[in-house]
Every structure is written in structure tokens, then in C-alpha cells.
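Consider today's protein:

***
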Amino acid sequence: MEFPSVGAHCDAPSCQSLDFLPYRCTFCQHTFCSPHRLPADHACTNWSMESHANSVQVCPLCEQLILTPKQHDSATILKEHIEAGCSNNLHNLPKVQSIAILCALPKCNRRDRVVQTCPDCSQTFCLPHRQPSDHNCPNIEERKRAVEAEAARRQEIKDTIARKLTGSTSGAMTTTATAGSTMTAEEKQAQAKVKAEAAKAAIAEAKAKIAARTSFAKSATAPSAATTGAAAAPAPPRVKKASRVVTVMKIKKNAVGEDKIPISSRIYVYIRSPVFPQLDDKSVYVDKTWTVGRSMDKIVEWLKIAVPKNEPFDAQKRFSIFHAKELDDTPTMLNMQDRLQQITAVESGDVFFLAPADWTWSTQ
């Protein structure tokens, strides 16, 4: 045994097995294993019918609860119950008081858990009879009289305020009407004529101000004959170059490159070559931390072009990258050992030309 001091042996004569979690019988105080822990399993000598508490069982015929009192055998009680026609030894459970409340209306026997108390008669009714008119509330007439009295009181207050306001304004209106009635027809006509002339003068003054501003604006914008000497020729229409942001967005649509290049390190450029005309519609993105030589090798690999062999090596015929801001600019050759981030002139939207180092761009 690896753990002889752990657990205990079962005291049942037919078992004697070692149990690491033994049970102690509360009647005989002996130790038993799990299969023999109950008094009936180990034939407990101190266990008797007096130790049984009241218990219940279900009758297989009527399916009702049968009460087995102390010091009685459950099988005997069940046999007596069946012989008596399932009428004796029944276990009557105490009645549970319902929380549903009966409606106070005499003709309604409805019980609900959700009820409402009438504020007039203070009685509880179900939801269908909760309104005073539904349960013939005896105090409904008093409620109506109180509501009517309150409405009459408010209306009286409104009428009093209206009478006071009408009395204070009627005097002023009467004075104005009297003053207007004393004016003759000739005086009224003269007064209307004066108002019309004043309105015409104001309109004429406004038109004069607008004409003066318009003439001043024309004189300021017209070219001077002394400075030009002749009629100014129409300026040629400006040719607006595409915005750098728009150019980069167009390149990104079809640009070729490696996905592992961080977005913050990418430089998007057009690819052109006088040796390979099929590259005129190509675009790539390279890592700005790369050298010009590595970028050249990657572009050749991505676009799958065959660079002419330079054997024996001749620096003048080495395939190189030429840089230009626009397609119509003259390209300049980049040093193969320089890193792109060190060349301040290189940025997204530029053009890379692939050509031999001795290529003469003026003769293209």
C-alpha cells in the first residue's frame, strides 16, 4: 500500500475494503465505504423504525400522496390504502392562499393579480371595471360636479382678465379715431402725396449709388491704354497639370509590388522604357529603404523583362534607372548605390525610365 495511513477500512464483514473517503454511521458509529454507508445496507443494529420520520409515497393506482407516520411500515400503509379504495392515509397539503384579488363589483367574480383602486370610492376592481363609469361608482357625480366647478372658475378668471384688457385699450383706440376723423380730405391727400415723393427720392438715390459702384468696378478692371499700348490680346488657355494626389491614386489602381512592403514605405511610380515599349502602361511601387540597384532588380523581376546582357561588363551600357517628374521632362540617371529615401527628388507619382546608362535622350 502506498498510503496506508490515508482513509479507513469498511466495517461491513463482507467488504473490508479501504476507502479514502469513508462514511460514519450516525446510529452505530461505525465506518463504511460508499456502497455500505446507509443503515439498511450494512444491517445497522441501532437503526429501528423509531428513527423514521414522517414520509410520503405515491400510490401507483390513484397517483396521490400517501402519508407514512412514524413507527409504521410504508409497504403496510400502501397496502391498507389500496384495500380501502385509495381513500385513507392521504397526505393533504395545506392550501396555498391565492394572491389574486377578487373584483369589488358584485356581478363580477373575476380574480386578477393586476388590479386598480378607484380614487373616488377606494375599492379595488379588475382592469375591465377600473373606470368609474364601468363599475357605477357612487361618487362619480361628485367628481363631475367638482370638475365642472373648476372649469367654471378658470373661465371666470379668463373673462375678468379680458374685460380689464378691453377697457384699457378702448380709450386709446377712441382717441386715435377722433384725431383721424378731424382731418379733412384735402389734408389726407396732401399727406399721401408727401409720402409718395419721399419714396421716389429714396429709390432714385439707391439707383445712383448702384450706378456709381458699377462704373468704378469697370474702370478698375479695364486695361490701361498707356501701359499696354494696344488692345490686350486674349490670354492663352492654361493647361492645368493633374494634381499629384490624383496621379498617385491612378498609379495605385494597377501598381505591381510586394505585399510585405509597408504602406508607409511605398513609393508609387510609372515605368517607361525606350527599349521596351510594352512598359508604357506599367506602374509599380518600391520600398523607399531600398537602393536604386535593388529597385531595378525587383522591377525587372515583377515586369518579367529580359535585360540585354552586358558581357563583358561595361558601365556605360549597364541598364539603369532614369528619374523624371513628368513624362515630358528630361530624365536624370540615379546612382545605383543610393537609397531612394536619400534622394529628395524622388516621390510618389514620378516616372522611372529603364534604359542603358549611355542612352541619349535628346535623340529619342
